[in-house]
Amino acid sequence: MMFIGTSGWQYRDWRGRLYPAGLAQREWLEHYAAAFGTVEVNNAFYRLPERETFARWRARTPDDFCVAVKMSRYLTHIKRLRDPAEPVARFLDRATALGDRLGPVLLQLPPTLRADVAALDATLSRFPPGVRVAVEPRHASWWTDEVRAVLADHAAALCWADRCGRPVTPLWRTADWCYLRLHEGRARPWPRYGRTALASWVDRIAERFGAGEPAYVYFNNDPGGAAVIDAVAFARAARRRGLTVGRTPSRAPAEPPHPRG
Asked: By its UniProt entry, which SUPFAM superfamilies does this protein fall under (predicted)?
């Protein structure tokens, strides 16, 4: 199964594209969840919601909806993976209010954080076996066999990441599931992805993961509704490849306007 969605859902410039012009913003989550089967909650990185907020998201979404949650920056950027016990426990105490809606937890590391294998191992050890964790390092010192082995030991996925149509991480398979984030394409209008780039990512996933191994794919290029348009195009390419794809809109919303100048 391939779960395809966007990184967040509350973007004002999606009004009139994904969201009908007259739809109240308080109803956007329900509308989004009727169109997509998954979302990545990015704002938890900046301010960890209370448990009641996660519980409300669970109540407002369908039974088959999946919520990936980005770990609070308190652990990744302030503590820099040191002393992970309390931050992970607090995060899980709140995020588990999603119940069966809780999908993978994303640990995006700061670009200035050099590889610290012991800290990574200690952090991953704090997550229970039933919680899938994806790690997105952003410093080249992390691309070592030792780091790869720690991820594999914990069945944690290396988060594959794309910027401008190119992988910015190794394409390691460290778990029996995949996590991919697409940050910015090279097509026009910016920051859209072209068909070739999207098809290439579909092929990479299909070549490395088999039936029964889920792939979570999130588009983080939100300006102008680009993420929604590209997610629909990616789903279409995956279906053409013969892959099973979760709920996505049947067609893309209105194209964002071309930039002036």
From this structure: TM1631-like (SSF117396)
Cα-Cα-Cα-Cα torsion 120, 220, 252, 236, nearest 10 degrees, comes to -30
Peptide bond just before 249 cis, omega within 30 deg: no
Query: Can you say whether residue 197 is alpha, beta or left, with left for phi > 0 and alpha for psi between -120 and 50 degrees?
Result: alpha
C-alpha dist (Å) from residue 206 to 60, 203, 235: 32, 5, 13
**Other C-beta atoms within 10 Å of 226: how many?**
26
Q: Which domains does the chain have, with CATH numbers?
A: 2-240 (3.20.20.410)
Full DSSP string of 68-99: EEEPPHIIIIISTTSS-HHHHHHHHHHHGGGG
Whether 72 and 91 have beta carbons less than 8 Å apart is answered as: yes
Q: What is the pTM of this model?
A: 0.95
